[in-house]
Structure formats: structure tokens, C-alpha cells
């Protein structure tokens, strides 16, 4: 649902960008026509004063700057639209991947079923052997630690007993 909402938002943004691009295209055409008119006015005004020519040149420059800004914005909008298209495609790809991942695989034949079963059994057996080995290693380790602990306690008891009885024997018998 969230992806569908995101896709709808992306599509709405793309439609809005398309409308803006169309408006900008019309604005460009209007500006181009207006520029042509300004240039024609300048040619016809060759007999007018130098001040009028300066004002018209400034106006043409302002229109050119505006046209350049409009073109830059149109280019920016086009880039944004392309980025949105890429995002939409990625969202569609992700959706397709999720659908594919969530669609259960149905084996085509009994041979595939047997092969899948054998594969799973061999994986299970390998994992079982690995766990048994790990369990044996841990058990051996614990047994060694227990044996060391028992030997340490026995040694302490013998040392304590040796200190308690003053016998001339150099070491207690095991």
C-alpha cells in the first residue's frame, strides 16, 4: 500500500512537472516571439533617439536573461522528471522483486522435488554433523575444565592436610 501510494505520488509529481514543462515551453515561444518583435522594433526605431535604443536594449537583455532562467528551470524540471522516472522504475523493480520473492516456487517435476528434498536433507545432515562436532568439542572442553578443577581441589586438600600433620614425608602419596 505504501509503495502504491509512493508510486501515485511520483506519478502526480511527474504529471505536474509535465504541465510545468508545457507552460515553460509556451513561455519560451512567447518570449521568442516577443524577442523577435523587440528586434523588429529596434530596426524600425533607427531614426529615434539614442535613449530609446538604450531602453530597448535593456529590455531585450532582461528578456534574454528571463528566457535563460526559464530554459534553466525547464532543464532542471526535465532532470527532476528523469530522476522521478528512475525512482518510479526502481519502485516497480522492488515491487516485482517482492512479489517474486513472496510467490512460492512450484517445482515443475517430481525430479525437481526429489532434487530439492535431497539437497535439503544433505544440508540438514551437514549442519547436524557440524553441530554434533561443536557439541563434542564443548563437552570435551568442559570435562577438561572440570578435571582441572577437581585436581586443583585435591591438591589444596593434600596441601592443607600436609600442613595440619607435621610428618617428615616430603610429599603426600597420591
UniProtKB/TrEMBL annotation:
Basic and acidic residues bias spans: 61-83
Chain segments carrying region Disordered: 1-27, 61-115, 150-174
Protein name: Uncharacterized protein
Organism per entry: Hemiselmis andersenii (Cryptophyte alga)
